[in-house]
Amino acid sequence: MFGFDKYTNTVLMAYGVAIAMLAILIVLSLMKSNRVKRELDAQEAKSNGKN
Amino acid sequence: MSLWEYANPARFMALSGRILPTLTIASAVLLLSGLIWGFFGTPADYKQGSTVKIIFLHVPTALMAINAWLMMLVASLIWLIRRHHVSALAAKAAAPIGMTMTLIALATGAIWGKPMWGTYWAWDPRLTSFMILLIFYFGYLALWEAVSDKDTAADLTSILCIVGSVFAVLSRYAVNFWSQGLHQGASLSLDKETHVDNAFYFPLLVSMAGMVLLFVTLVLIRTRTEIRTRRLSALRAREV
User: Fold this and answer.
1) Which residues in chain A have Cβ-Cβ distances shorter than 8 Å to B222?
2) What is the dihedral of CA B206, B209, B215, B218, to 10 degrees?
3) Average pLDDT of adjacent 10-residue blocks, chain B of 240 residues
4) What is the value of pTM for the model shown?
5) CB B67 within 8 A of CB B236
6) DSSP states of B180-224 as a string?
7) Which of B151, B190, B216, B223 is 20 to 30 A (C-alpha) from A30?
8) What is the ipTM metric for this complex?
């Protein structure tokens, strides 16, 4: 039932800003998680190789 | 099995790894359903027009902005009393999520406020207490980065968290006991006479449930990252 009225741009801007911020938070969290996991796996392999 | 056994990082990693896939799917489904239902499936308000649809983002993020801080408070108290590292790391992990939720609540509120109140910002009690909460989030994260010894950082940030809780609680209840502001009363209430119309109430509940689950999912992901980072630092330090 979304109808276009004089506030359509306001609503779209609010949704755009909020979804963009949530997307940045999710992407940054996943990127850091993957990077740290990769580094830890490499470090553990290196440490185990030495033992 | 006691809850405290999950303070063991290995047990926490095992349990969180098992529940994360289900939690991720549930949060995505609920949040998308709530937002799509709210955006496309609700009518325009007779006074606010289509701007009423902003509540499906504003209310859930404002709810989580406050509750993220309260979750950090509980985790900080557990750290201070029982010295479980996982709880300190969970508090640290929740802070950027709470800060983002606060930013979204402030931004969507300002965007809604311009056509409805005629201004993006007013020094209203709830808006001001939210702004102070945002500053506390920045300060909390800055303090974690500023102190090199992680246990000392956890101690100091825990104390900051206790102090900031005053503003988290104030943000929640400011609309109830300060009636001179622009901000209207709570959109949801256990008293069925005062909450929003059912046309908005049910999609709002779904959006809120989705936002809660998204918060829990992200906290688990970020806490796992913090635990791995700490283990990585320990392994690297052993080599030096």
Assistant:
1) 29, 32-33
2) -70
3) 76 94 97 95 85 94 95 96 93 97 96 91 87 95 94 95 87 67 61 70 94 98 96 88
4) 0.91
5) no
6) TSSS---S--SSTTTSPPHHHHHHHHHHHHHHHHHHHHHHHHHHH
7) B151
8) 0.91
